[in-house]
């Protein structure tokens, strides 16, 4: 069944697509239509705007300045990416042949970007779509006892910063001073352990289910599956386990009470995300606006050059985990 609302095309299995028409100046189009576009994102969780003709990082920066409420500075990135302009970053480094499972951006922080703006400067030859998942639907579909357990206990993220994989602690925290890291971590509910050789291990407990401030629905807001050790390439995981042991993996997740999350539960979470996934192949110049509190995103394998950049805006605080 196909429908339209305020120019938005609705198709099963696809995100809402809005044709900007002969937009000309992308920043000017957003200046004129930003408010109804934000309303559409409130309605649907994500909207793909087609026809804006975004070609450069400067184009994207201009759109972000008009659509968001201010640049968001990334902290605690799990993989170092490049800051291209104020608030505009390169895509997360990830092997082209490997899928990236759905997740909410930076959902392990206490201050997160509420809005993500993905812009396609060059579409890949094949694949490479950014799948989207309304995680209120995920909450409805997951076993009720699993949702209740995560609501009660939250989830636990352990990270080991080193040189093997992912961002170094200097890159993740934007400083070379240990005292700055310790200060930041104390303020953000993160336990730190400095290791011999200059490495760092952190642990942080977070809520895994939130109530969306606009819709009032519960959303599955975490990276339990994405940052699970089982999300790694199996050969890489085995190599890192052999070298560093289970406590030295670059990232791993547990339930908030410290109990392990079995592989089959990670698979179940990913399967239910896939059940509710919508996707649309990228075209050059596309803009995808995503409510990061409601909609998770991933990345599909691709071939050829792919240039997607992201602007993160509208920083918002989420509650720190409180013991019952």
From TrEMBL:
Gene3D superfamilies: Clavaminate synthase-like (3.60.130.10). Pfam families: TauD. This is TauD/TfdA-like domain-containing protein. Residues 32-312 form the TauD/TfdA-like domain. It comes from the Bacteria. SUPFAM superfamilies: Clavaminate synthase-like. Transmembrane segments: none annotated. InterPro entries: AlphaKG_dependent_hydroxylases, TauD-like_sf, TauD/TfdA-like. It comes from Pseudonocardia parietis. Keywords: Antibiotic biosynthesis, Iron, Oxidoreductase. Its cofactor is Fe(2+). The lineage of its organism: Bacteria, Bacillati, Actinomycetota, Actinomycetes, Pseudonocardiales. Coiled coil: none annotated.
